[in-house]
Amino acid sequence: MELVLGYLAIFIFLILIGVPIAFSLGVATMGIFLVSGEPAGLIPQRMWNGISSFPLVAIPLFILAGELMSTGGILARILDFARFLVGRFRGGLYHVNILISMLFGGLNGSAVADTSAVGSLLIKPTIEEYGDPDLAAAVTACSSVVGPIIPPSIPMLVYAFVGEVSVSEMFAAGIIPGILIGLGLMGLTHLIVIRKKYRHSKITYETREVVKIFLNFLLPFLLPVIMIGGIVSGIFTPTEAGCVATLYALLVGSLITRELTWDKCYRAAVRTVALTAIVMIMVSIASVATNWLSRMQVTFLVAGAFESVTSSTNGFWMLYIMFLLIIGLFLEQVAAIIMIVPVFLPIAGIYDISPLQFGLVTVITLATGLVTPPVGLCVYISSGIAERKVEGVFLHSIPYLLLMVTVILMLAFFPAIYLWVPKMLGLGGV
To answer: DSSP letters along 249-309, please?
Structure first.
């Protein structure tokens, strides 16, 4: 137990002094191997074993598809459609921001990519329209959290790999929670803009423009239908779905919108390599740490601690969600999933919680860490675009975070809200 506590102390200390998470995890793992007498030569082998999995190939493909769509004119068509639907509401650009994150998140599955792409399009115009940069950045950061929830979702892919759960079930179960959070964000934003007395937009559309907007939106809309429909129906695997998405984005961007140039393809590929490298480094190192923690019987120690505190399922959920919210302050979502799931998934089974429900609550709760300091990358990106201090953006994000926690508790205590979708599709959902 002393070794485990020492390992955690080293890891947390490195994070607090500003060492990147992946390197903090690697240094702490290497140190504990040396202290405990474990053969350090096994680390490279276990790192390779951690990422040597065919389903993980889908991750760079999803990232590349999202990058190609954001630079190939597809994102602009989604923006036009979102502006038509909700742009006339009071504080319309905020609602457009949230809706486009829901739609774009259903294409690329990455909150960071969503924050960067949508923020670059909307933060500056929103500031010019309403003069509230902190709120504009906060709405962008918080709405981007929907990206890893509405399928396809990169964190859900990682959880399905670690928790040995069907990707189809995870994707199907994530639809309702993503919609709930998105609509909740829009409702809360509506209350905020009413209090601020923002005006309605007077934008009008001719019939010809409406038809054009809907026809243009069919291009991006067909992609998630093809991907999710293909995965859920078993026509192709998530990796094959990533190939289809990438090919679709290339064809649409080069032949239809004609905005995808060789230079844009190159830059999209470079960003994909960089983001994939970050994810894979964390996956590989976290798998080594998880293997060591399991051999130290951490699962049994944690299970005993939980059972000594509560014997009820609701009690477990309260403790576990609080734990995830704290962990999310320091750990990146993917790394946290890899480290936490092998320890807590068997414990959830003791409380008769299905791996599917456990995974949904875990992924969504850890997603809140994307907008909480000190690791909240989405807040850093949006505040940088808005040219505001992170502290002010985070303060404006607190109401949205409280809303997300409320939805998370609903998902934990009332799983029937969303598990009916995979059950209806014949995928399980129990």
So the answer is: HHHIIIIIS----HHHHHHHHHHHHHHHHHHHHHHHHHHHHHHHHHHTTHHHHHHHHHHHH
Q: What are phi and psi of 90, to 5 degrees?
A: -65, 130
107 domain-assigned: yes
CA distances to 88, 96, 225, 228, 276 from 205, in Å:
11, 16, 27, 32, 41
Q: Kindly state whether residues 126 and 17 are assigned to the same domain.
A: no
Residues 221 and 313 both lie in one domain: yes
User: Which residue segment(s) compose the domain that 20 sits in?
Assistant: 1-40
Co-location of 171 and 255 in the same domain: yes
Residues 137 and 255 in one domain: yes
Query: Does residue 430 sit within a domain?
Result: no
Q: Is residue 23 part of a domain?
A: yes
Task: Give the distance from CA 266 to its chain's centroid.
Answer: 25
Q: Please indicate, yes or no, whether residues 77 and 10 belong to a single structural domain of this protein.
A: no
Q: Judge if 402 and 269 occupy the same domain.
A: yes
If we measure between CA atoms, which residue out of 366, 173, 401 comes closest to residue 286? 366
Per-residue tens of pLDDT for the chain, all 430 residues:
677 777 778 877 887 777 777 777 778 878 777 777 777 677 787 788 777 777 788 888 888 887 787 777 777 788 888 888 887 888 888 888 898 888 876 565 567 777 877 888 888 888 888 888 899 999 999 988 887 788 778 888 889 888 888 888 888 888 899 899 999 999 999 899 888 877 776 777 888 888 888 888 887 777 777 777 787 777 888 888 888 888 888 888 888 888 888 888 898 889 888 888 877 887 888 778 777 777 777 767 777 778 788 888 999 999 999 989 888 887 778 878 888 888 888 889 889 999 999 999 999 999 888 888 776 778 888 888 888 888 888 889 999 999 999 999 999 999 999 888 888 877 655 5
Q: What's the number of CA atoms in the CB half-sphere (13 Å) around residue 204? A: 2
Residue 331 included in any domain: yes
Q: What is the DSSP string of 51-71?
A: H--GGGGHHHHHHHHHHHHHH
Same domain, 141 and 253: yes
Name the token pair of 327.
């962990």
Q: Given CA atoms 111, 76, 233, 244 in this order, what sign does their dihedral have?
A: negative
Residues 90 and 219 in one domain: yes
The total number of structural domains in the chain stands at 2
